[in-house]
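Severity: low
Component: inverse-folding endpoint
Summary: output formatting inconsistent between runs
Steps to reproduce: submit the following structure tokens with default settings.
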């Protein structure tokens, strides 16, 4: 599924904040050590930084906000999982990036659920994995980021790890740009 399907339900801002360019994307990808999915880069270029559907924040590699910056959050979220694993023996059922097929965070839900890519294959083949809010349960969705979001807002996803309020069908969803 392409970003076009998502833009049909989520209105784009007139003036997106903190978008990228081809050159800046190369710098981000070099810093991360991996290319990123095309739909993610297109989403950031079209929407910038903000809240989608009243509950979802997609980490933006160009955001000045440390809590919304992809590079900062990827490191912090993965460090927390590594520390939890070493201190408490709690296992994440997936490897963590940069391990092969590892999870790489791309956003979060206001309730605390984390949104990841499973970095298997080329970036445009990566699927979505969701970790429940403050718990050990994960669920994998064989969809791209934009496909996952479109299916979510269309009410087609079945999930035990996402809040029920997020799983209902919507004709339109809001996008609220982050205020300066």
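Observed output (run 2 of 3):
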């Amino acid at each position: 599924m392409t970003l076009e399907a998502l833009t049909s339900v989520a209105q784009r801002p007139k003036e997106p904040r903190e978008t990228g360019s081809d050159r800046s994307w190369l710098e981000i990808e070099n810093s991360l050590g991996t290319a990123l999915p095309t739909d993610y880069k297109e989403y950031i270029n079209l929407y910038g930084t903000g809240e989608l559907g009243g509950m979802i924040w997609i980490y933006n590699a160009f955001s000045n906000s440390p809590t919304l910056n992809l590079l900062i959050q990827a490191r912090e979220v993965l460090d927390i999982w590594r520390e939890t694993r070493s201190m408490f023996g709690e296992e994440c059922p997936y490897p963590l990036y940069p391990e092969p097929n590892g999870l790489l965070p791309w956003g979060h839900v206001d309730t605390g659920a984390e949104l990841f890519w499973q970095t298997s294959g080329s970036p445009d083949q990566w699927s979505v994995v969701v970790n429940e809010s403050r718990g050990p349960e994960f669920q994998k969705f064989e969809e791209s980021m934009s496909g996952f979001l479109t299916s979510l807002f269309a009410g087609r996803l079945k999930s035990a790890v996402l809040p029920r309020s997020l799983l209902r069908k919507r004709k339109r969803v809001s996008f609220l740009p982050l205020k300066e």
